[in-house]
Amino acid sequence: MININKRITHIIQKINRQPQQHPNLIKKRASLYTNKTKLQKKLLQKFKKD
After folding, report:
1. C-alpha distances in Å from residue 11, one per residue of 5, 49
2. In b/e form, how buried is each residue of 4-30, taking b as 16+ CB within 10 angstroms?
3. For residues 35 and 7, what is the distance between their CA atoms, to the nearest angstrom?
4. CA-CA distances (angstroms) from residue 21 to 2, 10, 12, 16?
5. pLDDT of residue 8
6. Closest Cα to residue 42, out of 12, 13, 16, 8?
7. What pLDDT does 34 receive?
8. Averaged over 3-25, what is the pLDDT?
9. Are 15 and 32 contacting, i.e. CB atoms less than 8 angstroms apart?
10. C-alpha span between 44 and 1 (Å, rounded)
11. How many CA atoms lie within 13 A of 6 on its CB side?
């Protein structure tokens, strides 16, 4: 569970680090925060399958 959280925060940090010229990136960042729990569930299911 901790690994999944680390991975998600890493992805968010990656997007935050990118230049903010693109409105798409801002949208992506906003959707990432809202989809964080969805992403966690998906990753959890993936890890359970393996």
Report:
1. 10, 22
2. beeebeeebeeeeeeeeeeeeeeeeee
3. 14
4. 32, 21, 17, 12
5. 80
6. 8
7. 72
8. 72
9. yes
10. 8
11. 3
Rounded to whole angstroms, the Cα distance separating 14 from 6 reads 12
CA neighbours within 13 Å on the CB side: how many for 50?
Answer: 6
The predicted pLDDT at position 18 comes to 59
Q: pLDDT tens across 19-48, in order?
A: 555 667 667 766 767 777 777 778 778 777
The predicted model scores a pTM of: 0.30
And the tokens for 17?
A: 């680090």
